[in-house]
Design brief:
Order of helices and strands of chain A: EHHEHEHEHEHEHHEEHEEHHEEHEEHEH
Helix content of chain B: 25-40%
Low-confidence stretches of chain B: 1-10
Number of domains of chain B: 1
Radius of gyration of chain B: 17 Å
Helix content of chain A: 25-40%
Radius of gyration of chain A: 22 Å
Distance between the termini of chain A: 33 Å
Strand content of chain A: 15-25%
Strand content of chain B: 15-25%
CATH topology of chain B: Sufe protein. Chain: A
CATH architecture of the largest domain in chain A: 3-Layer(aba) Sandwich
Number of domains of chain A: 2
Structural class of chain A: alpha/beta
Strand order of the largest sheet of chain B: 1-2-3
CATH architecture of chain B: Alpha-Beta Complex
Order of helices and strands of chain B: HHEEEHHH
Number of helices of chain B: 5
Largest sheet of chain B: 3 strands, antiparallel
Distance between the termini of chain B: 60 Å
Low-confidence stretches of chain A: none
Largest sheet of chain A: 7 strands, mixed
Shape of chain A: globular
Oligomer: heterodimer
Shape of chain B: globular
Number of strands of chain A: 15
Structural class of chain B: alpha+beta
CATH class of chain B: Alpha Beta
Number of strands of chain B: 3
């Protein structure tokens, strides 16, 4: 077992004894991240890209250093391809409205999947309605993998954009984005990856991933809320119009017109999340000091342990791939005759924090034939103890609800 | 290592209070489930955050509820609350139902501690089995589950 237990001391919130199994929703923050933000706010804070005074220059340096750090972390050679946003949802909406509205014509096809988070589905529904483009979805196999055969059939000329999750927040399924990107590029389509789970838990290298856009959030990768990233291949970003207008994104403004600042600034209207950028920088330093390979291996080991120990909990049904290959640390479950909210309440009594509900993936819930699941998700600070507490809580739920 | 199998787990008092037998019974065997042949009023309530759903159909005669049916899906608390509700609203006038709803909402918002007035065994208990839902108060996040059917009922009544 990859031993990362020594890292737990870096996460003050874990002192409460909580078995935190909801990192897919949002991760906890290590002290170095909190301290970096605090230090920056106390010593170097001012608005960026505005003042001629030294403090503003220091803040601008810190903000742009965070951009370079993100670029380095995801293998982007050009830091200008990194756009800071409010989070994954904003990043995906930026592509949908900034790229989609500009580039899609009636009859063009948008190809997505049935396992998307609402953030990578609803914006495309909105854009399809406005442009007359047709929205289509790739189904799953019986093993909760993306059905690559059907994907191949649906990848026809006329598909202009492919919107796919890099790692399902419900199933843990990691689709083969490089293969999907090759197929998409062969028909001239762009590919946008919702990497909200993939980047924090497996990392990405955009130089080999193949996609044209990658969206992720800081708060799921040990950083603060309020900041996220849209990475775009430069030529793809050039096809995109700004989604928001305002300060900082312009080159010149007259009473009737405006010209845009260079990329990435044209996509960053208004004062950006500055302290948060510093926090994200520290979070990436922390993740890198542990190593993304080790974090992914740790998540996988915990998933394997969980799948095994959960398999003999009476009445429990697991939703997701049977094995751990190409699968992140997410385990969704339902219990016969017991609703997911009841499971979550009972687990909470044992200080086990899991998410219950539809996980912002209602179409996927319908595919799975359930209305809600309880979901345990793992990160670098989780241990086998957390899984034991989960199993004990589920057994207790089974006793209360008389599951045999 | 995994917890040993077959051990007896002690259910904490709070959980015992939440998942009383009467609630579990209504959850497993919901009363007045299904549809009415001629519904005079219908409303659908959804809790968008957790996905609980309740549809209520009412048959009304001279301002009195003469029939009620419920459909829905969700947690034990929302579905048991709906089932118990159907048992107390039949035969009641709009005004009486308004009183019941006020009493129910009052029960949900009481401070910690049990109101001696709210005892399901007490003769003339207006809320009947519903008083078993008092345990929900200790779980503020679940109050909306218990309230969903009642809010939906009020919506159905106000639609006529």
């Amino acid at each position: 077992m990859t031993d990362l237990a020594h890292l737990r001391a870096d996460f003050p919130i874990l002192d409460s004894g909580v078995h935190f199994l909801d990192s897919s929703a949002s991760s906890q923050k290590p002290a170095p991240v909190l301290e970096a933000m605090d230090r920056f706010a106390r010593t170097s804070y001012a608005n960026v890209h505005r003042g001629a005074y030294r403090l503003s220059l220091a803040a601008t340096d810190a903000y742009e250093a965070a951009r370079r750090r993100v670029a380095d972390f995801i293998g982007a050679a050009n830091p200008s391809e990194v756009v800071f946003t409010r989070g994954t949802t904003t990043s995906l909406n930026m592509v949908a409205f900034g790229w989609g509205i500009e580039n899609l014509l009636p009859g063009d096809r948008i190809l997505t999947t049935v396992m998307e988070h609402h953030a990578n589905l609803v914006p495309w529904q909105m854009v399809a309605k406005r442009t007359g483009a047709v929205l289509d979805h790739v189904p799953l196999t019986d093993d909760c993998r993306l059905d690559m055969r059907v994907l191949g059939e649906k990848m026809v000329p006329g598909v202009r954009i492919v919107a796919v999750s890099g790692m399902s927040n419900v199933l843990g399924t990691i689709p083969d984005v490089p293969a999907i990107s090759s197929l998409a590029h062969a028909v001239g389509a762009r590919v946008v990856v919702d990497a909200a789970q993939l980047v924090p838990h497996a990392g990405v290298d955009v130089s080999t991933l193949g996609s044209d856009f990658v969206a992720f959030s800081s708060h799921k990768m040990l950083g603060p809320t309020g900041i996220g990233v849209l990475w775009g291949r430069m030529e793809a970003l050039e096809e995109m119009e700004p989604f928001e207008g305002g300060g900082e994104m312009i080159s010149d403004v007259t009473l009737h017109d405006a010209t845009w600042a260079p990329i990435p600034h044209r996509f960053e209207a208004g004062t950006p999340p500055i302290i948060e950028a510093v926090g994200l920088h520290a979070a990436i330093d922390y993740l890198d000091s542990v190593g993304m390979d080790k974090i992914y291996a740790h998540d996988q080991e915990l998933t394997a342990v969980a799948l095994e120990r959960l398999s003999d909990v009476p009445g429990l049904v697991l939703h997701g791939p049977a094995g751990i290959e190409a699968r992140g640390g997410v385990v969704s479950m339902t219990m016969e005759g017991t609703h997911a909210h009841d499971l979550a309440t009972i687990l909470d009594e044992g200080d086990v924090a899991v998410r219950s509900g539809h996980h912002c993936a209602k179409p996927l819930m319908r595919e799975l034939g359930v209305t809600a699941t309880a979901r345990a998700s793992f990160y670098l600070y989780n241990t086998e103890d957390d899984i034991d507490a989960l199993v004990a809580g589920l057994r207790r739920a089974g006793e209360i609800f008389g599951v045999r | 290592m995994a917890a040993p199998h077959g051990t007896v787990t002690v259910v904490t008092m709070a959980l015992e209070d939440l998942y009383r037998e009467v609630i579990l019974d209504h959850y497993r065997n919901p009363r007045n489930r299904g549809h009415l042949e001629h519904a005079d009023a219908t409303a659908q309530g959804v809790n968008p955050l957790c996905g609980d759903e309740v549809t209520i159909e009412l048959e009304l005669s001279d301002g009195v509820v003469t029939g009620v049916a419920v459909e829905g899906q969700g947690c034990s608390i929302s579905q048991a609350s709906a089932s118990m509700m159907t048992e107390v609203v039949k035969g009641k006038t709009r005004a009486q139902i308004g009183d019941l709803v006020a009493k129910f909402r009052g029960m949900m918002s009481l401070e910690d501690g049990v109101d001696p007035e709210l005892d399901p065994e007490r003769p003339g208990s207006v809320l009947g089995d519903l008083e078993a839902l008092q345990g929900v108060r200790q779980y503020p996040v679940r109050i909306k589950c218990a309230s969903l059917p009642w809010n939906t009922l009020m919506e159905a009544l106000s639609s006529t």
